[in-house]
Design a protein that fits this description.
heterodimer, A: two-stranded antiparallel sheet
Chain lengths: 533, 515
C-alpha cells in the first residue's frame, strides 16, 4: 500500500506504457488480434482502479500537492521529474482513467484493421494525458503535452474517416505551432528565474509559482504579457477558443469513435487546465488585463458554435461544434475570476467530458449500424431503437443543461460567477459582466435549439428510410458502456458537493492569486456551492 | 622556455599521443588501400578493418578525455571538449556510414576498398577540423575531407546524376575553399598569427582592422558553404540527391559537424569580445559576425523549412531539412558567441556539439532506411515510393517515423533535447535579435512538422496500389537501426551524462601557448 501511495502517479503514467509494450509483445508472439482488446481493457481498468487511490486521504506537501514525487532528471538544465496532484488536476486524472476503458470498449467491433497499433496508441495516449495533468515541471509538462499529439495523430490518420489525412495533419500542426511558442516562454521563464535568483534557473512549477507569489521574481509588465500570450496561444488552440477552433470539427468528424471520445473528454481539457494552472498563476496581472479578450472570444465561441452546429447535416460534426460552444462556457467561467465561476468551469470540464463523450459514443453506435451520420438519413429512430433513443435524449438534456443533470450545475455556477465578476468592470454606465452573462445565457437557449432539433429529426416521426427499419437496439455491451456515464450525469447533477469540495482549495488559491487580496468577490463563508437552492 | 633564445629555436612541441586517434584513422585508411590492392574485392574484410580502426581510434580518443584542455604541437592541436565531442560525432558517423553502405555496395557493386579508404581519409580530415586550433591545420583537415567527399559523391561512375553531383560539389567546394583560404590569409595579415589563441590575443590590437573584417566575412563564406548555410546552400539539394545515399548521409552529418567544429573554434574562441585593451575593431568584428550569423541563421531556417515542404524526393527533403538543421545549430553557435562567461560559452559549445550528435544519430538512422528501401541507382526515393508501406514493413516504417519525429523535435526524442539545449544559450543572452532568431527557429520547427509528417502520412495513411515487397533487413543495417533508435530514445530521456561530459571542464580557460 505504501508503495502504491508513494509512487501512485508514476504508476498511473507507466502502467499504460507497460500495457502497450505487453500488448505489442503479445501481438508479435501470439498473433491473436482478438485478445488485444481484452488486454487493453484489462490494463485500462486496472489503471482506473489504481487511480481511485487518489481519492484516499493524504496529507498535502508544503506546496499544496498530493502524491508528490520529485526526482532529478537532467541536471544540466535543472529539470526534474516532478509530479503531483491537487484539486485542479485530481478530477481530470480520474476523468482520463475513467473514460479510457469506455473508449476501449467502444471500439470492440469497430476496428477493422491494424488492431495491434490501434491499442498500442490508445494506451500510449492514456499515459501522455495523465502525464500532462500531473507534471509539475514545465519541461516535463511540455513533453507530455506534445507526446499526446502523436498517438492521436495516428488514431485519426489511420483509423479515421474520409478526410482523415487532412484532419490529422491539421490537428498536429495547429497544436504543435502553439505549443512550440510555449516552449520558448518556458525557457524564458527559466532564465528570468536564474537572473532573479542569481543562480540556476528552474522549470519547477512550484518554485516558480512560489517565487512569483512572494514577489521575488519580478517580470516587467511587457515581458509578462508576451509570455502570457505564448502560453495562452498554445492552450487556446487546444481548447479550442474561437478563432482557433477550425481543427476541431475536422478532427472530431474524421476520428474513430474512441478517438472522438478521448479528444472531447480529455484532450480539450488540457487547454483549459493549462490556462488555469499556468497562465493564471504565473501572470495574474496579464490574465486580468486580457480577460476581456478571452471573455469576448468565449462568448463569440458560444454563439458561433451554436449557430454553426444548428446547420450541420452531420450529427458528429454537430456535436463537435457544440463542443466549441461548451468550451466557450468553460473559458467564460475561468476568466470571471470568481470562486463560483472557476469552480463551475472546472465542473463543466468534467461535465463536457462525460456528456459530449457519451454523445460521441452514441453517434458511434448509430454509425456502426448504418455507416452514415447524415441527419437526413434518419428519422423515427425511436420507433426501432427505443432504449437508444431514451438514452440519447437524456444525454442531450445533460448537454443542454437541464436541472438535475450535470450540465446544469456547471453552467449555472459559471453564470453566477460571471454575473458577480468584477473583471470586466463598469464603463460607460454599463456593467459589462451583466451584458456578458446575458449574451452567454442565450447560448444555452441556442444549445437547446440545435440539440433538440437534431433529436427531433433523427428520432421522432415515422421511419421514412426503409434501411432504418431493421435496426437493432443497443446490445448489452453498448448498454454497459453508456450506463456509467448516465449514472455520473445524474449523480453529478444531483449531488455535486464531493466534486466541488475536493477542488475548492486549489481553485480558490488560484482565484486569490489572480484577484489578489482586494478581489472582493471571494466569499469565504460559502462552502461548496450547491446547485439547487 | 624561460629565455627568448630557447623560445625561438625550441623544437616543435611533438606530442604523438595528442594526435593518436587521427593517426590511427589515417593508418587504417592506408592499410585498407594496400589490402585492397593486393587482395581486391574483399568487401567484408575492408569493412571489418575500417570498423576496427575506428574503434581503436575511439578508444584512444575517449581515454584522452580528461576534461582538462591541453595544447600541443605549438598550439596547433588543442585537446578540449570541443575536439572530443565533435571527434566522437565524426567517428560515429563514419562507423554508421560504413555499416549502411554494406547493403548499397553489394547492390551497386562499387569498389569497396577505395570507398572505405576514402571514408577513412575523410574521417581523418574531420577529426583534424575538430582538434586543430590553427587555421592551417583546419584548412588541411577541411581539404582532406573535401577531396575525399568529392570522389565519393561521384562513386557511381555510370550514373549521370552522381557525376553531376560530384562535379557541382567539386567546383563550388573549391570555390568556397578558396574563399576560406583567402580569409585565413587576411586574418593572418591582421593579427600576425594563424593560431586561434594567437588571433584571440592579438585581436584587440590588429595591424589592419579592415583586414580583420574582410577576412572574417570570407571565413563565414567558406564555412557557411560547408555547413550549408543560406545563402551558400544552393549546392546542397542537387549534391545530396545525386550522391549515393550513404555518401549523402555522410555529407549531411559528418561534413556538417566537422565544419561546425572549426567554425565554432575560429569564431567563438578566435573572435571574442571584450579583450583587455581592445580597440574598437575587436568589438566591431564581434558585433558584425554575431549580426551576420543571426540574419543568416534566420534565412537558413526559413529557406530550409519552406523549401523542404515542396520536395517530392525524400533525399531532397532531407537535404533541405539538413539546411534547416544547420540553422538550428547556428542558434546555439550564436548563443556561444554572446555568452558572458567562459562557463556559459563552454556550455553553449557543448550544446551545439550535443545538437550535432543528436542530429547525426537521427539522420543516420533515417538514411539507413532510405538506403535500404532504395533500389539500384538509388531509385525509389520519391515520396510515392513510400506509399502505404507502413503496415507492410512496420519495423522500418515505425523506426523511420521515430526519426522523422526526432528531426521535428518531438519531446522524448533526442531531437527535442538538442533543440532545447541550443535555444537556451540564445535566450539566456536576453538580446532582442537573438530572441527573434529563437522565435524564427520555433516557427521553422512548426513548419517542419508538415514535411516530416508527410513521410509518416504516406507510409501509414495511404494505401499502396502497386506491389511492394518488404526488403530483408541485413545485419549491418539492423545494427545501425538498433544503435540509432536506442540513441534517439536515450538522448531524449537521459541526456544528462552526455551533456555533462561535453561541457564539464576541470580547468576553465584554455592555456595559451604561442611560439
Amino acid at each position: 500500500m505504501d508503495f502504491i501511495n508513494e509512487n501512485l502517479l508514476t504508476i498511473l503514467i507507466l502502467l499504460p506504457v507497460f500495457g502497450a509494450l505487453f500488448t505489442l509483445g503479445h501481438a508479435i508472439y501470439w498473433k491473436h488480434e482478438r485478445d488485444l482488446k481484452w488486454l487493453t481493457l484489462i490494463f485500462t481498468v486496472i489503471n482506473f482502479l489504481v487511480s481511485l487511490f487518489l481519492l484516499g486521504s493524504q496529507t498535502a506537501s508544503s506546496s499544496g500537492f498530493f502524491f508528490e514525487k520529485n526526482i532529478p532528471w537532467i541536471k544540466a538544465i535543472n529539470t526534474n521529474y516532478h509530479v503531483g496532484v491537487d484539486g485542479l488536476s485530481l478530477w481530470l486524472v480520474l476523468l482520463t482513467t475513467f473514460i479510457m476503458p469506455i473508449a476501449v470498449v467502444s471500439t470492440w467491433n469497430a476496428v477493422e484493421k491494424r488492431h495491434t497499433a490501434f491499442y498500442v496508441f490508445l494506451l500510449l495516449l492514456e499515459s501522455a494525458m495523465i502525464g500532462v495533468f500531473v507534471s509539475l515541471d514545465l519541461l516535463v509538462f511540455y513533453l507530455f503535452f506534445e507526446a499526446s499529439l502523436v498517438p492521436m495523430f495516428f488514431l485519426i490518420g489511420v483509423w479515421g474517416g474520409e478526410n482523415r489525412i487532412y484532419s490529422a495533419v491539421k490537428f498536429f500542426i495547429f497544436t504543435a505551432l502553439g505549443s512550440l511558442l510555449m516552449l520558448v516562454a518556458i525557457i524564458a521563464l527559466y532564465y528570468l528565474y536564474a537572473t532573479a535568483m542569481q543562480g540556476a534557473g528552474t522549470f519547477d512549477y512550484v518554485l516558480l509559482a512560489a517565487a512569483m507569489k512572494a514577489g521575488k521574481l519580478p517580470i516587467a509588465a511587457q515581458t509578462a504579457s508576451i509570455l502570457f500570450w505564448a502560453f495562452a496561444l498554445a492552450f487556446s488552440i487546444k481548447v479550442p477558443l474561437f478563432p482557433f477552433h477550425t481543427w476541431l470539427p475536422d478532427a472530431h468528424t474524421d476520428a474513430p469513435t474512441a478517438g472522438s471520445v478521448i479528444l472531447a473528454a480529455v484532450l480539450l481539457k488540457m487547454g483549459t487546465y493549462g490556462l488555469m494552472r499556468f497562465n493564471f498563476v504565473f501572470f495574474p496581472d496579464a490574465s486580468r488585463d486580457y480577460a476581456f479578450i478571452f471573455i469576448t472570444l468565449a462568448i463569440i465561441g458560444i454563439i458561433y458554435g451554436a449557430l454553426v452546429a444548428m446547420v450541420q447535416p452531420d450529427i458528429k460534426r454537430l456535436v463537435a461544434y457544440s463542443s466549441v460552444a461548451h468550451m466557450g462556457f468553460v473559458i467564460l467561467g475561468m476568466f470571471s475570476f470568481t470562486e463560483y465561476g472557476m469552480q463551475g468551469a472546472l465542473y463543466q470540464m468534467l461535465n463536457h467530458g462525460i456528456s459530449t463523450g457519451a454523445l460521441f459514443l452514441l453517434v458511434g453506435f448509430l454509425y456502426e449500424r448504418r455507416h452514415t451520420r447524415q441527419i437526413t438519413d434518419f428519422g423515427g429512430i425511436s420507433n426501432v431503437m427505443p432504449i437508444y433513443a431514451t438514452i440519447f435524449v437524456i444525454t442531450t438534456m445533460s448537454s443542454i443543461g437541464l436541472p438535475f443533470l450535470n450540465g446544469f450545475v456547471g453552467e449555472f455556477l459559471i453564470m453566477i460567477g460571471m454575473w458577480n465578476s468584477t473583471v470586466l468592470g463598469i464603463s460607460g454606465g454599463t456593467n459589462w459582466n451583466y451584458v456578458a452573462t446575458m449574451i452567454a445565457g442565450t447560448g444555452v437557449i441556442f444549445a437547446a435549439v440545435y440539440m433538440l432539433w437534431m433529436v427531433q429529426r433523427v428520432f421522432f416521426g415515422k421511419v421514412t428510410n426503409p434501411k432504418n427499419k431493421g435496426l437493432k437496439d443497443l446490445s448489452w455491451r453498448e448498454l454497459g458502456l453508456i450506463a456509467p456515464l448516465l449514472f455520473l450525469m445524474v449523480y453529478m447533477g444531483v449531488y455535486p458537493k464531493p466534486f466541488l469540495e475536493r477542488s475548492r482549495a486549489a481553485v480558490v488559491a488560484i482565484q486569490e492569486r489572480v484577484m489578489g487580496q482586494a478581489g472582493g468577490t471571494v466569499e469565504k463563508s460559502v462552502t461548496a456551492p450547491k446547485a439547487k437552492n | 622556455m624561460n629565455t627568448l633564445l630557447l623560445q625561438t629555436i625550441s623544437n616543435p612541441d611533438v606530442n604523438i599521443r595528442a594526435i593518436l586517434p587521427e593517426t590511427i584513422v589515417a593508418v587504417t585508411g592506408i592499410i585498407v588501400m594496400l589490402y585492397d590492392s593486393f587482395v581486391p574485392k574483399q568487401r567484408n574484410v575492408t569493412t571489418a578493418i575500417s570498423l576496427i580502426g575506428l574503434a581503436i581510434s575511439a578508444f584512444f580518443l575517449i581515454s584522452m578525455w580528461t576534461g582538462t584542455p591541453q595544447v600541443s604541437w605549438n598550439g596547433m592541436i588543442t585537446n578540449d571538449n570541443l575536439r572530443m565531442s565533435f571527434s566522437i560525432v565524426a567517428l560515429l558517423t563514419t562507423a554508421a556510414t560504413i555499416l549502411i553502405s554494406a547493403v548499397w555496395i553489394e547492390r551497386e557493386n562499387v569498389p569497396a576498398g577505395e570507398y572505405h579508404a576514402l571514408l577513412m581519409f575523410a574521417t581523418f580530415g574531420m577529426m583534424f577540423m575538430a582538434s586543430g586550433s590553427d587555421l592551417v591545420i583546419m584548412f588541411l583537415g577541411l581539404e582532406t575531407l573535401s577531396i575525399a567527399t568529392y570522389v565519393m559523391a561521384g562513386l557511381r561512375k555510370s550514373d549521370l546524376k552522381s557525376n553531376e553531383s560530384a562535379m557541382k560539389y567539386f567546383i563550388l567546394g573549391s570555390f568556397a575553399s578558396a574563399f576560406l583560404l583567402y580569409g585565413m590569409a587576411l586574418i593572418y595579415g591582421a593579427t600576425g598569427s594563424t593560431n586561434i589563441a594567437g588571433i584571440a590575443a592579438k585581436i584587440g590590437d590588429p595591424n589592419f582592422p579592415a583586414l580583420l573584417l574582410i577576412g572574417g566575412a570570407m571565413l563565414i563564406i567558406g564555412f557557411g558553404f560547408k555547413v550549408a548555410m543560406v545563402p551558400f546552400h544552393v549546392w546542397t539539394p542537387d549534391v545530396y540527391e545525386g550522391a549515393p545515399t550513404p555518401v549523402t548521409a555522410f555529407m549531411a552529418v559528418g561534413s556538417k559537424a566537422a565544419a561546425f567544429a572549426s567554425f565554432l573554434r575560429v569564431f567563438v574562441l578566435g573572435f571574442p569580445v571584450g579583450v583587455a585593451g581592445s580597440s574598437l575593431a575587436a568589438d566591431y568584428l564581434h558585433e558584425s559576425w554575431i549580426t551576420a550569423l543571426a540574419v543568416m541563421a534566420m534565412l537558413t531556417m526559413i529557406v530550409g523549412n519552406v523549401a523542404a515542404i515542396v520536395q517530392n524526393n525524400v533525399k531532397r527533403m532531407l537535404a533541405y531539412s539538413s539546411i534547416a538543421h544547420a540553422g538550428y545549430a547556428l542558434v546555439g553557435f550564436i548563443g556561444a558567441g554572446v555568452a558572458k562567461t567562459p562557463e556559459a560559452r563552454d556550455a553553449a559549445i557543448a550544446a551545439v556539439a550535443f545538437y550535432m550528435l543528436t542530429y547525426a544519430i537521427t539522420n543516420l538512422g533515417a538514411f539507413a532506411i532510405v538506403t535500404l528501401l532504395g533500389q539500384k541507382n538509388d531509385r525509389r526515393t520519391e515520396f510515392e515510393d513510400y506509399n502505404g508501406i507502413g503496415f507492410k514493413s512496420p519495423v522500418l516504417a515505425f523506426t523511420l517515423s521515430l526519426f522523422m519525429l526526432s528531426l521535428f523535435g518531438l519531446p522524448l526524442t533526442a531531437g527535442f533535447m538538442g533543440k532545447v539545449l541550443v535555444f537556451r544559450p540564445a535566450l539566456e543572452a536576453a538580446n532582442p535579435l537573438l530572441t527573434i532568431v529563437v522565435i524564427v527557429a520555433v516557427l521553422g520547427s512548426a513548419i517542419s512538422a508538415y514535411y516530416y509528417l508527410r513521410l509518416v502520412v504516406v507510409m501509414f495513411f495511404r494505401e499502396r496500389t502497386t506491389d511492394w515487397l518488404a526488403p530483408k533487413i541485413p545485419a549491418t543495417v539492423a545494427a545501425v537501426l538498433i544503435i540509432t533508435v536506442i540513441g534517439v530514445l536515450y538522448f531524449g530521456l537521459f541526456s544528462n551524462d552526455v551533456i555533462d561530459k561535453f561541457s564539464k571542464t576541470t580547468a576553465p580557460a584554455q592555456a595559451v601557448q604561442i611560439k
